[in-house]
Each structure stands twice: as structure tokens, then as C-alpha cells.
């Protein structure tokens, strides 16, 4: 199944404690976002890859651009960046992926393509508490909870429609699946993700990422 990719690379270094965009931080001598970029490039069914980042950082991505890889200036929110990236998608299907998740695999991409309109997700292992301002309100049943990951794989037309509806009513979702859930009748499928597929956000994540890169993905 042919598809394009929106690879979100407009991260900040604030929570990472870094002075630069965290996707440029290195794991084993290579920028974080390039690992997932290489996985998509290795899939013969992957067409255009749209890097969506900060306008002022376009020059920094210049060396990664090609006939297949293009850069688009993103928006204020992640949701804005996806919507702007969709305007450059040419295929009927699109994967949306966070550039700060470097540990995806071709096997996971194949799983998504086998179940259109789906996301990667993993079971929640911690006990999850719903809280108020100061106190626990209730404990959520862990057996019904999954942690969403990326890539998330949708029909381009469907994703464009729900993004436009969300923009029209001022709805801000936490991921693309949440928009499909809110503004369509399409049921979003679940494809097994991996505990390795973590999003590098905090300094301790970078330490863990270095270990995963060295010990698991060499």
C-alpha cells in the first residue's frame, strides 16, 4: 500500500534541558529524527516524506532534503503542523510520526498498513489515577487502557476532513486519532507497538535512548 509520511520535527529542547531542538540531539553520533527517517526511506511503499518544522530551522534540515524528502513550515501547535503537512501529501494514505520517536521498525509499518486507519499502541502497565487539584479522584481500570504511539496511519482525505472540522470549532486534540474519534464514525484500529518506541522528551529519556540504540538496535 503506497503512502506518504508527515514527520514532525518541530520539537523544542525545553523539557530535555537542551539549547536546541531535541530532534537534533544525537544517539550514537546521529540526530534523533534521522533514525525514523531512514526506516521510512527503507520501505519501498513509502512515497513523499514531509518534514514539518519551525520556519526558522528550515536551513538546518537542508542536508536531509531530496526529491523524496521536503520541508514544510509548521504551526503553533502539533495539530496545526499536521494540518499544514497534509497539504503536501500526495498519496491516498498517510502516516504521521513524531520525529522524537527514533525506534520504529519496518515490521510495525507493515502492521499498520495491514489495518488501515490504525495506530500503534501498547498496554498500560502502571496504575493510572484520575486526579483533581490536589487529591486522587479515582483509579482507572488498567485492563481497558492503552498508551498511544506513532506512527498513526489514516486515509489522507479522512484526516484532512477531521483536521478542518477541528479547526472550524476550535477543538485541540492530543493526537490525530483523537480527531478521527471526535469528528468521524471511523473506528480507529490498534496495532501492537513496542515499549522501545518511546518519545524522547526528558533528559532521562535520552540516557535510556542511548542504551536502547546501543544494546537493542545496533
UniProtKB/TrEMBL annotation:
GO terms for biological process: isopentenyl diphosphate biosynthetic process, methylerythritol 4-phosphate pathway. Pathway: Isoprenoid biosynthesis; isopentenyl diphosphate biosynthesis via DXP pathway; isopentenyl diphosphate from 1-deoxy-D-xylulose 5-phosphate: step 2/6. This is 2-C-methyl-D-erythritol 4-phosphate cytidylyltransferase. Its EC number is 2.7.7.60. GO terms for molecular function: 2-C-methyl-D-erythritol 4-phosphate cytidylyltransferase activity. Belongs to the IspD/TarI cytidylyltransferase family. IspD subfamily. The gene is ispD. Catalyzes the formation of 4-diphosphocytidyl-2-C-methyl-D-erythritol from CTP and 2-C-methyl-D-erythritol 4-phosphate (MEP). NCBIfam families: ispD. The record marks 15, 22 as: Transition state stabilizer.
